[in-house]
Design a protein that fits this description.
This protein has helices spanning 26-31, 69-99, 104-133; strands spanning 5-14, 17-23, 39-41, 46-54, 62-66, 139-142. Helices cover 46% and strands 26% of the residues. The protein starts with a strand and ends with a strand. By secondary structure, it is α+β, with helices and mostly antiparallel strands. Helix 2 runs antiparallel to helix 3. It has two domains: 5-68 and 134-145; 71-132. The mean pLDDT is 84. It has a five-stranded mixed beta barrel.
Length: 146
């Protein structure tokens, strides 16, 4: 597994996830992942992150968090590009349909907004379904195991 690594302290282990407190770094400002519902802000500039434990992780352990680069890039592509591509395709379709009425730009804009909104709804549902699998969550490994 490759990707950006961060270190934190395991707070709670529950089922297939571990809750980790991580100190915010300069890399946090560029990542954009903090907008996800599995990440909340704690006290003193810390983040509270849900992760998938690798090996045995106990509360109080110092853990290494790692996000698989491929999964992170897939998620980023979906979040940023899908709405743009949908809006572009919607505009093109709306323009072609609206051209016959003489209002291609208006219909293109309406279809673009509708297509982008549909893509956001799909992304919301996809996020809910993938949250249970832990697919886009980072992995946490106790430093005791290293």
């Amino acid at each position: 597994m490759t990707g950006m690594k961060e270190y934190g302290t395991a707070i709670k282990v529950q089922g297939r996830t571990v809750t980790v407190s991580v100190r915010r770094t300069a890399a946090c400002d560029r990542c954009g992942r903090c907008s996800h519902p599995d990440i909340v802000f704690g006290d003193n500039g810390t983040l509270i992150v849900e992760a998938v434990p690798i090996g045995e992780v106990k509360p109080g352990d110092v853990v290494e968090l790692e996000m698989d680069t491929g999964e992170f890039l897939k998620a980023s592509f979906l979040i940023w590009m899908l709405p743009l591509v949908s809006a572009g395709a919607g505009f093109g379709l709306g323009y072609l349909i609206g051209r016959s009425t003489g209002n291609g730009g208006l219909w293109g804009s309406v279809f673009a907004l509708f297509s982008a909104a549909l893509s956001f709804l799909w992304l919301h549902e996809y996020d809910k379904s993938s949250r249970g699998s832990g697919r886009y969550l980072p992995y946490a490994r106790s430093l005791r195991d290293l």
